[in-house]
Design brief:
Number of helices: 20
Number of strands: 0
Keywords: Membrane, Transmembrane, Transmembrane helix, Transport
GO molecular function, one term: transmembrane transporter activity
Strand content: under 5%
Shape: globular
Number of domains: 1
Structural class: mainly alpha
Order of helices and strands: HHHHHHHHHHHHHHHHHHHH
Membrane topology: Multi-pass membrane protein
Helix content: over 70%
CATH topology: Amino acid/polyamine transporter I
Largest sheet: none
Pfam families: AA_permease_2 (PF13520)
Subcellular location: Membrane
CATH superfamily: Amino acid/polyamine transporter I
Length: 504
């Protein structure tokens, strides 16, 4: 595997964009560290572990922790493929331009349609879950009204920071990164070293969660422990035109996001399990929200409050990163004329150099979903469930498109290149992704039709409406943006690099 291709190393960011057919119109003020922070706070191990800790323990017991390792390994393969793609196509929007340039306009449009809705409902879900931390910190009674107002405050504060420019986004993302690391690694290590009530052997003890003596079903059901956690690294590529040397730095930032996020999640999940005074009550479902009790018992009241501040910062950073990624995808969609109101969506502020109108959409639509949750609190779970499978499907549409191009003879021309290992890694990433989607799509067995099938029903609605719009409105015909040109662009990049080398 090579992270530096001699054929393209001398091409500047501006020249690279020019070869791809775009002008350099953003401030490149985001460093590798800031780009990594953006992806990490979107991935947010603190949010993932806290949200599903009790649920996965009741399904699969302490061995559920191994899903963090399994899913992390699978998603690392996906990040390798993404790294090659973004290294050749370091442009705003991530999954949308990648799929369009790798396959075609209609394929790219459907991938982006699924991904944008999954991302928007993820913004809503994270803000909703974060409202509980804010209510606990400030002693606010948790009601549907207070939850809605706090959720709205999350969205508006994140919007204000994003609106002020990329430097503010990067600064708060770095603060969020520090908060995440303190909240998951710092607290996790403290619990492991000083507050351990269980032995490490507990991670091989199902604690009675097996079904009729068969633990395999229970373990597969606990896959959410990892599946809910390992996405967000793609956000590093969503802001590619605001990163200095994105073709080299973004692939590295993606991999760092997964590796550091996975280690952080292991410390957090493992620390909470080992520090639980009565783990049996959590596994049996008697204690449905165990983490506050574990923290108060281990850190004391003051320590618990400090953790709430850290958690609140992490949730805000996560919403901030999600909004930023969603707005860049909407901007990219609009720039290529693929959505109604595309000229309005593609406007960039002359002063802050951010897509302000796309940001308005990335804030207002999640606020609308939050209003729906206010009127029907039962909608939050299906909103979260759809977000996970929608994003995994969009991921695999990129991986499949990359494999199709490899079969046709594509040799990625970006500075990050997998070389001869690319084909094998691409196939392995696709196999892993299909397996993950199947796990997410398996209907529940509660007997409640709506609850058991809600993920597939939601996915069907999004795919159905997207397909109808695509066939009726034909947005692909209204855009002259380049598509399906991976092999051609690779040749142009190599020729351009060779010309620069000759001139030098």
């Amino acid at each position: 595997m090579s992270s530096q291709s001699s054929s393209t190393r001398d091409i500047s960011d501006k020249e690279h964009l020019s070869v791809l057919g775009y002008e350099d119109s953003f401030h490149r003020s985001m460093s590798l560290w800031s780009n990594f922070a953006l992806g990490f706070t979107y991935l947010s191990p603190l949010v993932g572990v806290y949200s599903l800790f009790a649920v996965v323990l009741t399904i699969g017991g302490p061995p559920s922790i191994w899903w963090i390792v399994l899913v992390g390994a699978g998603q690392l393969l996906v990040s390798f493929v993404f790294g090659e793609v973004v290294s050749q196509y370091p442009i705003h929007g991530g999954i949308y331009p990648w799929t369009r340039r790798l396959w075609g306009r209609r394929y790219g449009w459907m991938a982006a349609w699924v991904y944008i809705w999954a991302m928007i409902v993820t913004i809503t879900a994270v803000a909703e879950y974060g409202s509980g931390f804010a209510a606990s910190l400030f002693g606010i009674e948790v009601t549907s009204t207070s939850t809605f107002l706090i959720t709205l405050a999350f969205l508006l504060v994140a919007f204000a920071i994003n609106f002020s420019g990329t430097k503010s986004l990067a600064r708060v993302a770095r603060i969020g990164l520090a908060s995440e690391l303190i909240g998951v690694i710092g607290v996790g290590l403290y619990l492991l070293i000083f507050q351990r009530h269980q032995s490490f052997a507990v991670f091989f003890d199902s604690m009675g969660t097996e079904n009729a003596g068969n633990y395999a079903t229970a373990f597969l059901g606990a896959a959410l422990a990892g599946l809910f956690l390992f996405y967000g690294f793609e956000a590093c590529g969503d802001v590619a035109e605001e990163v200095e040397s994105p073709a080299k730095r973004i692939p590295l930032a993606m991999m760092m996001t997964i590796l550091v996020g996975g280690v952080s999640a292991l410390f957090a999940f493992g620390g909470y399990v080992l520090a639980a005074p009565n783990l049996a009550d959590i596994v049996s479902g008697k204690d449905g929200d165990p983490i506050p009790g574990i923290l108060n018992a281990s850190l004391g009241i003051v320590g618990g409050k400090i953790f709430l501040v850290v958690a609140l910062t992490a949730f805000l950073s996560c919403v901030l990163s999600l909004q930023a990624a969603a707005s860049r995808l909407l901007f990219s969609f609009g720039r290529d004329g693929m959505l109604p109101g595309h000229r309005w969506l593609s406007r960039v502020s002359p002063s802050t150099k951010v897509p302000t109108n796309a940001l308005i959409v990335a804030c207002s639509v999640p606020a609308t979903f939050a209003l729906l949750v206010y009127f029907n609190g039962n909608l939050l779970v299906p909103v979260t469930a759809f977000a996970i499978i929608g994003i995994y499907i969009a991921f695999q549409m990129v991986v499949l498109a990359a494999l199709r191009q490899r079969i046709k003879g594509w040799r990625p021309a970006g500075p990050f290149n997998l070389g001869t290992a690319g084909y094998v890694i691409n196939v392995a990433a696709l196999a892993w992704g299909v397996f993950a989607v199947i796990l997410l799509a398996i209907p529940g067995s509660s007997g409640d039709f709506a609850a058991d099938w809600v993920v597939l029903l939601g996915l069907g609605v999004v795919f159905g409406t997207g397909l109808i719009y695509l066939l009726v409105a034909r947005p692909d015909r209204k855009s002259d943006a380049p598509s399906g040109d991976a092999i051609e662009v690779a040749a142009k990049l190599r020729a351009h690099a060779a010309k620069i080398t000759t001139q030098v």
